[in-house]
Amino acid sequence: MGAVTQPKQDRSRATRQRLLEAAVACLAEYGWGGSTVAVVAERAGVSRGAAQHHFPTREDLFTAAVEYVAEERSAALRGLFTDGPPVRSAVVSALVDLYTGTLFRAALHLWVAASNEPQLRPRVTELEARVGRETHRIAVELLGADESVPGVRETVQGLLDMARGLGLANVLTDDAARRARVVAQWSRLLDTTLS
Questions:
Q1: Measuring CA to CA, which residue among 27, 73, 7, 19 is closest to residue 46?
Q2: What is the pTM for the complete model shown?
């Protein structure tokens, strides 16, 4: 019996993951208005019924999708620096990269939708607070920052706020050259502040 159940669970898990990845891609590409459960199901290659089995509401699907990818990105960020203490400029660059990809674009659409959708707002607010705390914790760890020193916590938070701002600028135009100069400057500032 266990052998029969396991492949079914694996298929269910794989379907759920395809739906989450498709939801993020659709949200980033089409925004909230164009991202329906049916559109996501089609992109994921599953029936609408299967999608609704995993995620009963549209809000369930999209908040789970952004949370899933945020967790994946956090794991990937940690995985970049497994060979000893990282160079600060590489950490700053990796943190900024978190805010310039598909996940940030999808999250941005979710934020805008949440500002107009009362049923979505509390879920997105709670999700973003959790993602923000986790990203801050990872940043402190990777930067080797001692938050007991006055001003260090605010410096790390300023880095993350700046990274989010660079990600926002990148939504409209490719801002890579300017971003590289800002990352270099922030790395120098962090070396001075955190040393």
A1: 19
A2: 0.78
